[in-house]
Amino acid sequence: MQTHQYDVVIVGAGGAGMRAALEASKDARTAVISKLYPTRSHTGAAQGGMCAALANVEEDNWEWHTFDTVKGGDYLVDQDAAEIMAKEAIDAVLDLERMGLPFNRTPEGKIDQRRFGGHTRNHGEAAVRRACYAADRTGHMILQTLYQNCVKQDVEFYNEFYVLDLLTDHDLTTEELEDGAEVNATGVVAYDLATGEIHVFQAKAIVFATGGAGKIFKTTSNAHTLTGDGMALAYRRGLPLEDMEFFQFHPTGLAGLGILLSEAARGEGGILRNGEGERFMERYAPTIKDLAPRDIVARSMANEVREGRGAGPNKDYVLLDLTHLEPAHIDAKLPDITEFARTYLGVEPYTEPVPVYPTAHYAMGGVPTNVDGEVLRDSHNVVKGLYAAGEVACVSVHGSNRLGTNSLLDINVFGKRSGRSAAAYAKTVAQHKPLPENPAERVVQQLEEMRGRPDGERVADIRKALQETMDANAQVFRTGESLNTALSDIRELQKRYKNVSVQDKGKLFNTDLLEAIELGFLLDIAEVTVLAAINRKESRGGHYREDYPQRDDANYMQHTMAYRRPTSASDVADGHIEGYFDHVEEFDGYKVVLGSKPVTQTRYEPMERKY
Amino acid sequence: MTAVAENTRADAGTQTDDAPGAVASFEVTLKIRRYNPESEHGENVIWDEFTVQAHGTDRVLDALHKIKWEQDGSLTFRRSCAHGICGSDAMRINGRNRLACKTLLKDVNPDKPITVEPIKGLPVVKDLVVDMEPFFASYREIMPFLITSGNEPSRERIQSQADRDRFDDTTKCILCAACTSSCPVFWTDGQYFGPAAIVNAHRFIFDSRDEGAQQRLEILNDKEGVWRCRTTFNCTEACPRGIQVTKAIQEVKRAMITRAF
Amino acid sequence: MTTTPSAQVIPSPRDPYARRKTTRGNYELYSWVFMRASGVLLIVLIFGHLFVNLMVGEGVHRIDFAFVGGKWTSPFWQVWDLLMLWLAMFHGTNGVRTIINDYASRDLTRGILKTLLYLAFVITVALGTLVIFTFEPCPANADPALLASICFE
């Protein structure tokens, strides 16, 4: 076992992690730990653009952007955070340009902008050109540009290191802590994939930027490596997860495969049609049609298919029609996604419509933070020295449904803010807080147990069953019944997981072992997602309950906060969980306590959400 | 470098399968080069054959996953995004460098066993995993970042779309190493900077906003730099992003010659 | 901090990598340009040489000691052949040097092969140059039937 000491340790090297690293490493000794090479991160898969009210091509301002974000999130957005994001978006885009990002240009040579779902002029009048883009490779360019600047700044990376535990100076799952009591994050425990060695990183400040958990679903645009590691680690250490019931399904995934086709396809003029050739979005969102927010489009598509108007032999998808666009225009603006259609489905988008169906895309929820990226341990107390940014975090700027392009914005704005605050905080701390005795104990035990089990359940079987039940029961349409089915399936799988075994018993590059560990994360995340969804008996944004199809502001204009506690934890320990929801679920050895956190409202009163 | 990419795709119009453009499921055998110093074989390389059931739209990566998940969990390879964006899973499939997630089984003649090997020229760590450090070290050496002087502008730097298009091709690079590890010159001693590093230098040398072209040309004007390129076009053929790699290298050479004379 | 799960520690396969040495300079650039330029010149020289030797007049049947001797009495052909020799040798040697660099992976093998190559270059060029400039077209006591006409002028 090796021990390292840094001022700031950043976990994850995607957009948020590297943006934080660029800030933090200016002022503090910083290390970035990533389970992949940085350029492999899934930020690179983002396509369409990054919105900022630059007003390069038409009138726009950040206040409209804030409104769109709040309305897009079905008013569950913390409006102060959304305002910060929309305001700082402009600098975030300009920062990236100055770092070298090759944006597409207007005839005057300024950054070009295009339309995107849910982004409107003057509070919903019409679609506005707000998304700054580089063809359909905006995420790729962001990731490359950030990595390039990390190389320039000589940022220290630990590549292919899996962070498997978070260390704090108080056990939040059992200890009774008073309001305002100081809790510090002291380090992380990581596993070096190449050698199988354990490394303990002691840090004054830690930034979690581990990304999402799309792999709880079967059909997903997410990478195989997006297994909710950061969320699960925080959750297991007693930190809450916020708004996990809200998962975004991107309308246009390649049918059957889930590979993302950017919303930019519709921003550039693409049209969704059902099996009868009808432009069905005219019925669901008469004003902005195909450019309605993703939750609405995804639901409309699923509804078309459900009502028998799907396309294809099994009528199980709809069509994205680009055939009326000039091939040259498609090549200039959407080269990658048309190639996906050709490569994976053998469909030529110039002449044929592309089969698409919603695909699990983005977790709106995550580790709760304030606008400086500081992680909350309940509805208002922060954990000192712990920060989170990006998809793993819930600020919450996305509320119950994220607008397209706002994730690239989120990682840049809040990545930067959390990197800066982490470094600033680290400078105020004279001495590293002591690590617990045997800091790696839990990880070592977990790994040894997993490796040592001679025979048992296969990881892939359990994961497949999990993904299938999530797709069947907790997808675009949910009911109390389907969610309970999912929950009991997950319980069953959790039992089976206890007996999971891996075939590869080695130390060198043991991906078999790590897949097993990741499955544990997935099960935890799926469980919280489903529990929070069961508890929220209303429909809002990405969470649609057929048994409660209306939004219910009277009872549910609250963020869900899910805490995991051992069943042995006293009721007093639960007592400090502020809870409007006040819901406790007990299982095998632990319970999930659902509390709440108020939504911050500033300018905008909740209104009916129509497009 | 003469692998045949036979297209066995049947006419999509006559399909009865549910997925569009799919062919019915079929059996496919993969012949995989294995190396695991911890195993009973020690430092020896062995070839393992696995047969799996595959569907029309399945990629080589799906077959590898099936093997790992259903037959042999110790089979080791890198992968992440699974649709050709992250660049994790470059490997030699039927003797040609490709991304496993972008290569459909039906396009690599599944009637015969498909050979899968790690990319060449980089030290193998385990099975299909190679040590990428030398590759990234070359990338870092060419100063892959925008170099400017003077004060930062308050808004964006102005660049015409034509200037932006000048280096568009080389911005697509995902650093998968398919090009570099397909280059016979790189195979010899691994000292050559390699196509990927030159492509990334090209991306900045021809960016109108950048002022570091001279430094990068100086770095690549090395015994191990662009002059080792023999224009065999292996790199262009291998690039999963369709970058005209050899052309980019030639353009860098030309820039050096115009600079010298 | 004493938990060591297992005594066996596998050394990191990712030892910090460094290029063996930086070898910047215009040498390779010039040799790259030279290859192309000398190639073009050699095409002219060689085809001119072949044309004069094989096509003009009686062609190949004409070639004998006298013919060669006659040519080398003219400074024009001396320079022509000298250029051809030097360019071909530089061009060829540089080409083989490149091949050795590409295909010999061990430094020792490379060193030996290149030493042999340069040795062959020096010998050939020196001998060739010597011959061109010291060639005696009309050696004494030779059979007059074999000599060029200039010997009798």
UniProtKB/TrEMBL annotation, chain A:
Catalysis: reaction(s): a quinone + succinate = fumarate + a quinol
Protein residues bound to FAD: 12-17, 34-49, 229, 391, 407-408
UniProt-listed InterPro entries: FAD-dep_OxRdtase_2_FAD-bd, FAD/NAD-bd_sf, FRD_SDH_FAD_BS, Fum_R/Succ_DH_flav-like_C_sf, Fum_Rdtase/Succ_DH_flav-like_C, SdhA/FrdA/AprA, Succ_DH/fumarate_Rdtase_cat_sf, Succ_DH_flav_su_fwd
Residues binding substrate, per UniProt: 250, 262, 361, 402
Class of enzymatic activity (EC top level): oxidoreductase
Chief place of localization: membrane
GO MF, one annotated term: succinate dehydrogenase (quinone) activity
BP GO annotations: anaerobic respiration; electron transport chain; tricarboxylic acid cycle
Pathway info: Carbohydrate metabolism; tricarboxylic acid cycle; fumarate from succinate (bacterial route): step 1/1
Domain Fumarate reductase/succinate dehydrogenase flavoprotein-like C-terminal intervals: 463-611
Keywords of this entry: Electron transport, FAD, Flavoprotein, Membrane, Oxidoreductase, Transport, Tricarboxylic acid cycle
Cofactor mode of binding and number, as noted: Flavinylated by SdhE, about 5% flavinylation occurs in the absence of SdhE.
Cofactor(s), by name: FAD
Residue intervals of the FAD-dependent oxidoreductase 2 FAD-binding domain: 7-408
Family: Belongs to the FAD-dependent oxidoreductase 2 family. FRD/SDH subfamily.
Name of the protein: Succinate dehydrogenase flavoprotein subunit
Automatic annotation (TrEMBL), chain B:
Gene Ontology MF terms in the entry: 2 iron, 2 sulfur cluster binding; 3 iron, 4 sulfur cluster binding; 4 iron, 4 sulfur cluster binding; electron transfer activity; metal ion binding; succinate dehydrogenase (quinone) activity
Residue ranges of every copy of the 4Fe-4S ferredoxin-type domain listed in the record: 163-185
Catalytic reaction annotation: a menaquinone + succinate = a menaquinol + fumarate
Cofactor, free-text remark: Binds 1 [3Fe-4S] cluster. Binds 1 [2Fe-2S] cluster.
Pathways per UniProt: Carbohydrate metabolism; tricarboxylic acid cycle
Keyword Iron-sulfur: yes
InterPro entries reported in the protein's UniProt record: 2Fe-2S_ferredoxin-like_sf, 2Fe-2S_ferredoxin-type, 4Fe4S_Fe-S-bd, 4Fe4S_Fe_S_CS, Beta-grasp_dom_sf, Helical_ferredxn, SDH/FRD_Iron-Sulfur, Succ_DH/fum_Rdtase_Fe-S
Enzyme class: oxidoreductase
Biological processes annotated in GO: respiratory electron transport chain; tricarboxylic acid cycle
EC number(s) on file: 1.3.5.1
Cofactor(s) listed in the protein's UniProt record: [3Fe-4S] cluster; [2Fe-2S] cluster; [4Fe-4S] cluster
Gene3D superfamilies (alphabetical): 3.10.20.30, Alpha-helical ferredoxin
Residue ranges occupied by any 2Fe-2S ferredoxin-type domain in the UniProt entry: 26-122
Entry keyword set: 2Fe-2S, 3Fe-4S, 4Fe-4S, Iron, Iron-sulfur, Metal-binding, Oxidoreductase, Tricarboxylic acid cycle
Family: Belongs to the succinate dehydrogenase/fumarate reductase iron-sulfur protein family.
Protein name as annotated: Fumarate reductase iron-sulfur subunit
Organism of derivation: Xylanimonas oleitrophica
Automatic annotation (TrEMBL), chain C:
Domain of life according to the entry: Bacteria
UniProt keywords, alphabetically: Heme, Iron, Membrane, Metal-binding, Transmembrane, Transmembrane helix
Subcellular location: Membrane
Gene Ontology MF: a single term: metal ion binding
Pfam families, per the entry: Sdh_cyt (PF01127)
GO cellular component: membrane
CDD domains per UniProt: SQR_TypeA_SdhD_like
Gene3D superfamilies tied to this protein: Fumarate reductase/succinate dehydrogenase, transmembrane subunit
Tagged with keyword Translocase: no
Transmembrane segments: 29-56, 76-96, 116-135
Name listed for the protein in its UniProt record: Succinate dehydrogenase
Native species: Xylanimonas oleitrophica
